[in-house]
Amino acid sequence: MSDDGAEPDGVSPVLKADWFQSRWGKEDQRGNGNLMTREKVLEAAGLIKTGEIISLGMPYDASMPIAPGRAYALRMPGGPTGGPYGGKSKTIWNDEFIATEIGQIGTQMDALGHLGCMCGMRGDKTKMLFYNGNRLSEMWSPYGLKKLGIENAPPFFTRGVLFDVQGLKGRVLDVGEEIALADLKACLERQGVAEQTIRPGDAVFVRTGHGSRWYTETRTFYDGAPGIGLECARWFSSLQVCVVGADNFAVEVVPPVDPEIFHPCHQHLIMENGIHLHEGMTFEGLVEREAWVFAYLFAPLPIVGATGSPGNPIAVL
User: More exposed terminus of the chain, fewer Cβ within 10 Å: N or C?
Assistant: First the structure.
């Protein structure tokens, strides 16, 4: 933001004039993760009836879709890596070495420092702004983010709600197909979930069907995807959710409706509202059981300075 606290120059049209003033205070780095309270944990725990665990994450391997410019490589240094130790036990072990953009590969949760806006001249890092008005000049280092890294996100244990748009449409949505707010509300009606039951601190998830292309259309997976539009993102933020997730790679529709406004839902949800995005998920186990409301658990890896976290989110029924 500008030195006098006024609206930044060249701000994205997606954002409100006072977007850089977090409701949680000027030092906040957690965003709507602050809604992850003890009460939300107890509420989510009350949803658990059978104890069945459903994985919402995809496996990590070299055959998964990878965004252009990113890489994933796992190597075993030696076979075995170490040992033997102990004259009698002759203990040996295996280790692995992984080289990758660990927070932005496969099933991933975005940190609040992942996406921002160039609000000034190109190259001016004092006008490259992120959640809560943080300047890239103050938060970036070659060794990781000094602010808004994923280590600031809480462990999530809250009520999850699935919007099965694929089920509503009866098909896998087309690449570039925007999900409308009416679609989301129709999902709730079809699934028997009342809109007013979605409360602050809940996590919401959208099934587009794009996840079915994970292995069958791996090379083109990142070329585009169905997803929510800005109208849906604004509705989710008005409900004060803490996480928005999907079975695509960006949560929102790609390519964007307006080619001059790239990732508007990211800017609105992450930058303006401090809402974490959970991407590359799978909901097939939930759909098979018609489990539209569930306990959602995910503990982001507290990698200091990372732009996101891999991991295996789960639903407990």
Answer: C
